[in-house]
Amino acid sequence: MADAAIKLGTEPKTTFFDKVKGLLPEEGHLNLCLTCGACSSGCPATGLEDMDPRKFLRMAALGLDEEVTKSPWVWMCTQCRRCVYACPMSIDIPQMVFQARKTWPKDKKPQGIMGSCEQALRTEGNSAMGASSEDFKFVVEDVLEEVREADPRFKDMQVPINKKGAEFVLNQNSREPVTEPDEMVPLWKILHLAGADWTYSTAGWAAENYCMFGAEEEGWEQIVRHKVKAVEDLEAKAWLNTE
Amino acid sequence: MQKFKIEPKFRLESLIKYYAQWIREGKLKVNSDWNKDLKIKFTVQDPCQLVRKSLGDPIAEDLRFAVKAVVGEENFVEMYPNRSNNFCCGGGGGFLQATGYQDARRKYGKIKFDQIMKTGAPYCITPCHNCHSQIHDLSDYYEGGYHSVHLWTLICLSLGVLGENERVYLGPELAELGL
Fold it and tell me: What's the confidence (pLDDT) of residue A234?
């Protein structure tokens, strides 16, 4: 005679796992895990905080909500999607991680990310380093003048700002104008020599979006919409990323 | 934009595609003669965001086309794995700005560091700001001695137009080349 079935002590509940399934297209394939471990063997974050992608998914499937969502590991996954690429069932573990990040209270999320998100929301250019659009414009014009004077081959080089109808609106990571403005110059020279029709925009010029990393969806959307509007207001054909 | 159901009236493009296109069209007259005798080796980091997460292997080919045109095919060394299967550097997803998790970020990055060291190349081209910072930091922290460089620096170097103040990330052997 077999032992009586083990009775689990808890009532059925709606778990974090169920919630995430409900949010993702095709439920993120979360139920299709074969437990093969291809995700974990190819993930550089495996082992950090005693966690790995497979373990994360399996623990969530078992309803261990607290252990999963509160693990600092959710900030160590870089959302690189190599696990999804390796997975035979295309399970979207990074989206689970993103949803886990969302459950953290603002003041517990990494302050570096949150600070950058707030700065971006505060500035017209959405600069995570808090650079104002006036400063951005000033630095660009100042550096350009120096190059024109220093190198006769580039005495006619233009760096258009807010030019309407250009083919490209180019974004610019805040790092260059704020900490190493000379690094913008090679970029301009290339665009100049290629004869590209481009412009910067003072609205939404900054390339980065830390609200996305911080899983602050409202802020993320606000920044994206602001940048999209900037490109459309300038009637550009393309939004060009420097990378 | 998809996530927020935004349908933009413009295209989203990466400059990497245009580097390759402008070189093919002859608008950027790059060549690798400067490296014929120097024979400095370069490897390249395929950024997750650019390759695996958005434009896939075709953009990785554009990236290689541009890099080889600039440094010379014989001076280009692949790291393994690469393209869509490449390892993340560990700087993405906010990890670089995740206050308090610096040690974990460097542990994560050890795979990338070893991958680069195995190529033997003294330069890793990093066409992404996060990759550039992280790979630079890994070299310092683990004392790898390699340089982390932007692609725009090398394109201008090969065009003979790289200014004196635009060489922060180059080693001493390239500090004055073509000035």
Answer: 98
The full set of domains in chain B, from first to last, is 15-157 (3.40.50)
Contacts with A214 from chain B: Cβ below 8 Å: 94
Q: Do A241 and B8 touch (CB under 8 A)?
A: no
User: B160 CB contacts (<8 Å, ≥6 apart)?
Assistant: B34, B178
Which residue in B116, B114, B123 sits closest to B146, CA to CA?
B123
Q: What is the mean pLDDT of chain A?
A: 95
Decide if B155 and A190 are in contact by the 8 Å CB cutoff. Answer: yes
Flag whether the ipTM exceeds 0.90.
yes
Task: Provide the pLDDT for residue A4.
Answer: 77
What confidence tens digit (pLDDT) does each residue in B141-158 have? 999 999 999 999 999 999
Please give the helix or strand (H or E) that residue A189 lies within, else none. helix A184-194
Of the residues B50, B161, B162, B170, the best mutation for testing chain A's interface (the one with the most A CB atoms within 10 Å of its CB) is B161
**What are the chain A neighbours of B92 within 8 Å (beta carbons)?**
78-80
Q: Does B127 touch chain A (CB under 8 A)?
A: yes
Mean pLDDT of A206-221: 96
pLDDT digits (tens, 9 = 90+) for A99-119: 999 999 999 999 999 999 999
Of all residues in chain A, the one with the smallest CA distance to B3 is: A221
The tens digit of pLDDT for each residue in B20-72 reads 999 999 999 999 999 999 999 999 999 999 999 999 999 999 999 999 999 99
Which has the closest alpha carbon to A83: A72, A70, A71, A96? A96
Question: What are the chain B neighbours of A169 within 8 Å (beta carbons)?
Answer: 10
Nearest to B88 among A80, A110, A116 (CB): A80
| pLDDT score at A10 | 65
Question: What H or E segment, with its residue span, contains residue A170?
Answer: strand A168-170
Distance (Å) from the alpha carbon of B91 to chain A's nearest alpha carbon = 7
User: Is A9's pLDDT higher than 70?
Assistant: no
Nearest to A238 among B6, B10, B109 (CB): B10
Length of chain A: 243
